[in-house]
Amino acid sequence: MLTIHQARTPNQKQKQDKTGLAIAGGGPVGAIYELGALRALDESIDGLKLHQLDVYVGVSSGALIAASLANGISTVEMCRIFTGQEYASIRFDPERLMRPAFKEYLERATMLPAVLTNALLKMIRHPGTSNISELVSQLGKVIPSGVFDNQAIHDFLEHAFRVSGHSNAFEDLKCALYIVAVDLDSGAAVRFGSEGRSNVSIARAVQASAALPGLYPPVEIDGHYYVDGALRRTLHASVALNEGVNLLIGVNPLVPFDSGEKGQNSEVSDQRLNRGGLPLIMSQTFRALIQSRMEAGFRKYYSSHPFADLLLLEPHRKDEEIFFTNIFSYNSRTALCEHSYQATRKDLLNRHKELSQVLEKRGLSLNMDLLRDKKRTLGDSIGQGRSSHAPVARSLSRVLDNLDEMLDDRKAV
Fold first, then answer.
1. Gyration radius (Cα) of the chain, Å
2. Spatial CB neighbours of 200, under 8 Å, sequence gap ≥ 6
3. How many angstroms separate the CA atoms of 139 and 409, rounded?
4. Alpha carbon of 204 to those of 185, 192, 298: distances in Å?
5. How far apart are the first and last CA of the chain?
6. What is the pTM of this model?
7. pLDDT, tens digit, for every residue of 322-363?
8. How many DSSP H helices and E strands does the chain contain?
């Protein structure tokens, strides 16, 4: 679903256009949706390259994509990596994100004897004021703060930057990159990459931004502990708008699933939501909260930043495939990325007249021939079939991709 909000009036004081990208979280499923949508957008707009923008803002899993784009890694290569193509520059294994946080388990377990001893002694000394509920409260201290080990997020991104020759430092980037996390002790949103917050590595900042409480432990940086940046806002798009961006592209994969009115598609609503147990119920609840906050935030941008054109990409609320995908299956990853790619192409085509008005102001245009090609697939877009396990061949593939971009630039001139 594509939402378009055109600027009410041009900013006469700003001489040069600035384009920004704000990407929300959504876990592995959200990240795959975002990649498919971004690839469709990237190839469909002549003159626009999503890895050569002015400002990037990333939250949670969206932080990983934003950090990669800011480093010059194209949507082509990212789609290859995250859909597990054999000719990708590096290998991505989503199951690494589900490794138990054994270190966290051990550290909490070592606290158990002391916690039990103190609680029991208090009950003995003050039997009238102590009760079972207080004991349960004390035992809460030994419950692990996260089920899975998010060090894998840091290690993967650090490795990706190293083998691809890109930088893990904010100050080395040619653009502005902001990774948003929340300080656990203050509840304040922190923008890594901003002044005074750029000394941390990009990989560590992404790890902190993606530390969803309950799933991943908080991440320590300079004596502070950080958790998922989505706990404060969904997109944090105002960070880019405050940098003077006048064309903002937002991507939010988290929308609540709409199974239809009672009696319509009852198998989905009854068996997959209500009977799907706590995980599906929590997912639907979380999505509804995220969507509500995001809509409220975007409405504020209309008045707070009247000079900016806003484009927002989201899944359709009746899109069953996105809501129920098993991201840890290779076939599901590929199918979801293809599905997102095709759905976004359809949205762009359906809204091409209004979208063209926004793009033409910046010398950009929609590639209508490409959008009308009903046979085109994501595999066609990313060069599926250039298979080779040899590093030399993979390097040659990247050189060919760069050559394609240079030729596109010359055509644009």
1. 23
2. 170, 192, 221, 222
3. 61
4. 18, 10, 29
5. 32
6. 0.82
7. 777 665 555 678 889 999 999 999 999 999 999 999 999 889
8. 17, 11
